[in-house]
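Homework help board

Subject: predicted structure for assignment chain

Our instructor gave us this sequence and asked us to write out the predicted structure in token form, then describe one feature. I got the tokens but I'm not sure how to describe them. Can anyone check?
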Amino acid sequence: MLILHAAMIVPTHVRDKVVHVPQSVPDTRPRVFVLDDDLEMSRLVEKVLVRQDYQVATSNCPQEALEELLTGGYDLLITDLRMPGMDGLALMRIVLEAVPRMRVVLMSAYGDMEDYRQAMQAGAFGYLPKPLSMSDLRRVAENALAQPPRPH
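My token output:
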């Protein structure tokens, strides 16, 4: 015999037992956002990080990325330094002001020591030169995510 219970058909022998329906398990993998105006570079970085078992979102537009970063609950931002519309350093400052717990890694094809110094002083966790070394990318992402978030 079957009885209708909470919009479900439940066999009679189960009716008197406590049945726990598991809730969906939240995805606790680190969330990484990759921003580069070069779409191929974004996709390459995404591919490497997905293989490291991170949740990855990408964009090639700093303005659109900023909106997502301020509301999306990301743990790590990996962004190009020089992009049209807004550079990675300006974007990083805005993001860290609003979301201080986020870690930021800048990447650049321009090996300018002044850019590196400014990035680190502004709160960047790391700085990756392009062309990227995939092993350096994996190591820097892993190290950044292993650090406790900065206090609010």
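Reply (TA_rk): Your tokens look well-formed. For the description, you could write something like this. The longest helix spans residues 39-51. That's the kind of observation they're looking for.
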